[in-house]
Design a protein that fits this description.
It is built from nine helices and 21 strands. The chain is α+β, with helices and mostly antiparallel strands. The structure holds FE2/S2 (inorganic) cluster (FES) and fe (ii) ion.
Amino acid sequence: MAVGKGAKRAYAGYSKNLDKAENAELTHVRKGTPCGEFLRRFWHPIALSDEVRHLPKRARALGEDLVVFRDRRGRLGCLDLHCSHRGTSLEFALVTETGLRCCYHGWLYDVDGTILETPGEPPASRLAASICHGAYPVREHGGLIFGYFGPLDEQPEFFVTDAAAIDGNECHPYFLPFACNWLQVHENSMDPLHSVFLHTRTSGVQFSDAFGVLPVVSYKRTDLGVISTATRRTGELVWVRVNDELTPNIAQFGPPWEDGTREKLFMPPAITRWILPIDDTHCATVGWRHFNAMVDPDHRGRPEEIGRGKVDFMGQQPDRPYEERQIQPGDYDAQVSQRPIAVHALENLGTSDVGITLLRRNVARGVATVKNGKRLEQPKLDSGHVLRTYAHDTVLRLPARSNDDAAFLAATGETVTRITLATASLPRGERRPQAIRQLREAGLC
Ligand code: FES
Ligand SMILES: [Fe+2]
């Protein structure tokens, strides 16, 4: 029987064309590329504070080789890695009172890139004054050092999210290198369904049994990016998890150990993380695990397991034997193996991938704005440079409806999402009480 054009065929290997290019416009990050220029309008975490004490720290971001250091007076600097004299790496430089002194011929750099001394030159030399060494603005918060790599007149205000600004919160920083492009790792933030399969059904229970329940999922664009709402039944309870995607590369999630078995209302996220684009085929998940009484009342987090190359939940690094990773793959294995740069033209997106599509559209919109020479809109910040965000976990006692529980779950998720968005503009202290009041009025608690 003849097979019609476009029909499925078995053993199709030879007839398939896998030779498709990646979407360079959304993935390539070097200076001068559309996405590279877009990403250069944001602050990025580039190192852990603990790594920048007495010695310079070599770093890499957006395809740039860098050195991060703290001079003896405690001032932070981020410079181009290679000395402007003859290129020696400044990771071997001497930290001084007033900056960084190259090991090879002693040129001294201030934190802003000014060359303070060229000691091998005659006193009247104008060489230092004629050279500008690359330097970048830096900020430090919660044990992370952030850099800004774009034009100075477009430098945005530095901010932290409200999750990091909760009274008594401790930010525990981590830095996890991934051997693949930044976008596919960031896209994971808008893929709540992978938790059902990768983290529960196909790899065994990696976090909690409840993740294996197929949720009702919806996505909404926000002023900051996209949110996903995953609503699932856990016995007599309904667990609603709202994840944040803050374009271009921040995401927030509840704790990985959540099992939806205890009532809770608008519990803040346990994780804020950036995907640092290192170069086109490398990135890092850099972020904070939050520790506070609301998010971890039972002290399930393990601060001693959080830092460079480690975080206190499994599957985030290639740190297990290969065979074990094949049997129980984690996030690292699933995302890095999408190819060094995931090829969008080879994907077949379904209805469950709406969040991915929305996220890509947001990135594409930002890329186009910068490409067209326009300025990006900056988010409104509360006092203390705090950004109000949306992620939370809410668990409600709502027994199953015998007629159409799936529709009930969807409606519950929609109501929680609506309240989440509707209360976002309230002052921070009033937001949660007001959201709980609205939940009560909706008959959900
Ligand atoms: S290469 Fe750095 S001072 Fe000569
Ligand atoms: Fe995951």
